[in-house]
């Protein structure tokens, strides 16, 4: 899959401005941008004002006016990672869309000179290499989720394979002729379907052999 170099159009959901309500620090947040800007300060009133504005752009503007917490530079990347993870973890449809980006490199290309979270492509910044921290975090969340899904798929697959074997043995004991009566068993059929679907989706046999 080709690199995704801007979080717009069909990839707008990758942006921190994208509507994606989630719970964090016992509060509801409409976007990652709202929560990130509020996290800059320890002032509860300032946090409340940021949380309650409608547009993420307004939240960003308010975030520029708050008194920064002393440790902000040290914790801002970990805060962003936590918020992005919560965004996708609490919005399964968005998580599916993130996983659909497969192995594409995610780059927040922009024209507003952000070379920390993204990579600005304006003439002024053309000689600078953006750190693209947001893109990196998104790819890490994608990898973590894919690995978790794969582990769960392997677990289900192994369980299905064991039960399938037991089911076949049970039916072989019950019949004394080669009509393969077990093939009509709905339990057996269910395990076969699970087994085949997981093999197709994750190439489970290869993973199990490697482990």
What would you note in describing this structure?
With 211 residues, the chain is mainly alpha-helical. It folds into two domains: 135 residues, Tetracycline Repressor, domain 2, CATH 1.10.357.40; 61 residues. The protein is built from eight helices and four strands; from the N terminus they run ββαααααββααα. The strands form two sheets. A two-stranded antiparallel ribbon has the order 1-2. A hairpin with a 2-residue loop joins strand 1 and strand 2. The longest helix is centred in the C-terminal third of the chain and has 42 residues. It is elongated.
Provide the domain count: 2
What's the tally of helices? 8
Number of DSSP-assigned strands: 4
**CATH homologous superfamily descriptor of the largest domain:** YbiA-like
Q: Which architecture of the largest domain per CATH?
A: Orthogonal Bundle
What is the CATH top level name of the largest domain? Mainly Alpha
Following the backbone from N to C, one meets helices and strands in this order, namely: EEHHHHHEEHHH
Task: Please estimate the helix content.
Answer: 40-55%
> What's the rounded overall pLDDT mean?
86
Query: Into which percentage range does the β-strand content fall?
Result: under 5%
Poorly predicted runs are: 174-179
Radius of gyration: 24 Å
Shape: elongated
Distance between the termini: 27 Å
Short description:
This protein has about 210 residues and is mostly helical. It is about 55% helix and about 5% strand.
């Amino acid at each position: 899959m080709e690199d995704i170099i801007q979080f717009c159009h069909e990839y707008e959901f990758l942006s921190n401005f994208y509507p994606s309500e989630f719970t964090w620090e016992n509060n509801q947040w409409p976007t990652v941008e709202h929560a990130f800007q509020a996290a800059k300060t320890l002032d509860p009133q300032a946090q409340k004002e940021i949380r309650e504005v409608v547009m993420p752009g307004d939240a960003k503007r308010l975030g520029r006016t708050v008194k920064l917490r002393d440790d902000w530079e040290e914790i801002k990347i970990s805060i962003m990672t936590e918020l992005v993870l919560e965004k996708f973890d609490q919005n399964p449809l968005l998580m599916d869309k993130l996983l659909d980006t497969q192995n594409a490199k995610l780059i927040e290309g922009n024209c507003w000179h952000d070379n920390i979270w993204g990579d600005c492509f304006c003439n002024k910044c053309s000689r600078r290499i953006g750190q693209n921290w947001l893109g990196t975090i998104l790819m890490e969340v994608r990898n973590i989720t894919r690995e978790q899904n794969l582990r769960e798929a392997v677990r289900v697959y192994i369980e299905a394979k064991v039960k399938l074997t037991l089911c076949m043995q049970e039916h072989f004991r019950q019949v004394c002729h080669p009509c393969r009566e077990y093939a009509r068993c709905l339990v057996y059929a269910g395990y076969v379907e699970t087994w085949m679907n997981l093999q197709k989706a994750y190439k489970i046999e290869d993973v199990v052999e490697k482990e």
